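Our working data are protein records whose layout never changes between entries. An example says more than a description, so a record of this kind follows.
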Amino acid sequence: MALRRFEPITAIAAPIDTANLDTDQILPARFLRKSRDAAYHRYLFADLRYAADGSERPHFVLNQPNYRDAQIIVGARNFGCGSSREAAVYALNANGIRAIIAPEFGDIFYNNCLANGLLPIRLDEAVVTDIRRQLHETPGARIAIDLSNQWVSAPDAGRHRFEIKPFARRCLLEGLDEITLTLQHAEAMNAFDAGYRARRPWLG
């Protein structure tokens, strides 16, 4: 199934100041066997977001009224470190998160984001820290992201360019995953298979 195309967005951004936020904090291990149903978004940041009785922790950013509809997270150093669990990205997608801005990411998490249509953006740490400051000062402020031209516009209208590999950029813009990429070559694969079998009739 094709991924959702990444189009230019202007959306509420939520600041998360925790450095080394790992994948077990993003999606605790006990939820790994859960099916990706309509409740999957509730597993995102579950131990940070909810108390033992299931009630919301009011101090957590995504529980605060101005950030509930956030589609962008602005994090800190080493966002998504820890285990390789791809389900952490599934949970972010299920919660409507389209992009994460941070100074650096866990390598596997970064690649899992790209493979699942979630845009990870690396910016200089001083820039990211300042953007988080702006978001804290103006809860509900919006950030604009243009992947085609590779820039982020902060709440103060400051524009910051980011780098991304051309192939990853193309896949996000066109909504391509590994399967849909492969299927683009279906005609060539079928022709090869037909020729291969024609030269080896004993294969049946």
Notes: The chain is about 35% helix and 15% strand. Strands lie at 9-15, 72-74, 99-102, 119-122, 142-146, 151-153, 159-161. Residues 9-175 form a domain with the Aconitase; domain 4 fold (CATH 3.20.19.10).
